[in-house]
UniProtKB/TrEMBL annotation:
CDD domains: TPT_S35C2 (cd21092). It is a multi-pass membrane protein. Residues 348-358 have a biased composition (Acidic residues). GO terms for cellular component: cis-Golgi network; endoplasmic reticulum-Golgi intermediate compartment; membrane; nucleoplasm. InterPro entries: Sugar_P_trans_dom, TPT_transporter. This is Solute carrier family 35 member C2. Residues 344-365 are annotated as: Disordered. One of its GO terms (biological process) is positive regulation of Notch signaling pathway. Keywords: Membrane, Transmembrane, Transmembrane helix. It comes from the Eukaryota.
Length: 365
């Protein structure tokens, strides 16, 4: 009877993990293709990103209110001093990362975007070394060389290469390295109480919106104000369809962050990292099949080389976590790692300790 119960528990956990991975894939791959599709007809990616931020803030605030009503515990609210001094740098870097990523969809294919965005791991490693979050080791140098070499091979003589779009997404990856490093530092400050990603998203979105607004005003403000799709609309139905499409993208963006949190809180950050590797493969295969992206043998070899570097990095992190017993983040006010409405039952002690790693396990929103 005991053996049967263990088998049932194992099967149930495997099914649950698979379901959470598929949910994560739906949101992550879905928003990539959705944003690419939307920018073909709506050429204002910065405005689109700002609307997504507003939707994420709205759903984050709603989630916090529901959790607070359910648990009768106050959620963390930062003082203006901490908010501006400690959250603002992370928010600005995140806004630029997401904004430039969406901007690049105007020029490049999904496959080139996916491959180049994977290089964020490279910059995360570099900035982790600069901020002394990682120690320089020969294995890390090998990871950097594999990812950089793979990126070069993928873009070398690519038939659908666009320098402007490549520069935008590479810049986003570079800023993403700063973003995730600052995010890790932010989450490790236990006194701020932002270990729960819903609280983090709630506090980041307003500053991200303000940080992205000057870039929007310079590059899209005038064009958007004269566009018949938004401000000078003549067809109310068209306006509602455009706003509905943008709102749906915001829901996907919120769902991506939330599905990442669900996956890592019920499994581990290692599971999210491994799932992210296979997600890149799925994205490239879908881009080649559905969108007709042209990928040569050399490009595939470069992608394989880059994935091997990312896989090595994931394996090193796993060994490091096993060696030191895993990270032990402190818990702050109102930041229990459960999102009580959904994860009230059967939350394991060791899974709690993985929560603050989920931000740095994946180099995109």
């Amino acid at each position: 009877m005991g053996r049967w119960a263990l088998d049932v528990a194992f099967v149930w956990k495997a099914v649950l993990t698979l379901g959470l991975v598929l949910l994560y894939y739906c949101f992550s791959i879905g928003i990539t293709f959705y944003n690419k599709w939307l920018t073909k007809s709506f050429h204002f990616p910065l405005f689109m990103t700002m609307l997504h931020l507003a939707v994420i803030f709205l759903f984050s605030a709603l989630s916090r209110a529901l959790v607070q009503c359910s648990s009768h515990r106050a959620r963390v609210v930062l003082s203006w001093t901490d908010y501006l001094r400690r959250v603002a740098p992370t928010a600005l870097a995140t806004a630029l990362d997401v904004g430039l990523s969406n901007w690049s969809f105007l020029y490049i294919t999904v496959s080139l975007y996916t491959m180049t965005k994977s290089s964020a791991v490279l910059f995360i490693l570099i900035f982790s070394l600069i901020f002394k979050l990682e120690e320089l080791r020969a294995a890390l140098v090998l990871v950097v060389l594999l990812i950089a070499g793979g990126l070069f091979m993928f873009t070398y003589k690519s038939t659908q290469f666009n320098m402007e779009g490549f520069a935008l997404v590479l810049g986003a990856s570079f800023i993403g390295g700063i973003r995730w490093t600052l995010t890790q530092i932010l989450l490790q400050k236990a006194e701020l109480g932002l270990q729960n990603p819903i609280d983090t998203m709630f506090h980041l979105q307003p500053l991200m919106f303000l940080g992205l607004f000057p870039l929007f005003a310079v590059f899209e403000g005038l064009h958007l104000s004269t566009s018949e799709k938004i401000f000078r609309f003549q067809d109310t139905g068209l306006l509602l369809r455009v706003l509905g499409s943008l709102f749906l993208g915001g829901i996907l963006a919120f769902g991506l962050g939330f599905s990442e949190f669900l996956l890592v809180s019920r499994t581990s950050s290692l599971t999210l990292s491994i799932a992210g590797i296979f997600k890149e493969v799925c994205t490239l295969l879908l881009a080649a099949h559905l969108l007709g992206d042209q990928i040569s043998l050399l490009n595939w070899l470069g992608f394989a080389l880059c994935l091997s570097g990312i896989s090595l990095h994931v394996a090193l992190k796993a060994l490091h976590s096993r060696g030191d017993g895993g990270p032990k983040p402190s818990k702050g006010l109102g930041s229990s790692p459960d999102l009580e409405l959904l994860l009230r039952n059967s939350q394991q002690e060791e899974d709690d300790n993985e929560e603050d790693e989920y931000f740095v396990a994946q180099g995109q929103l």
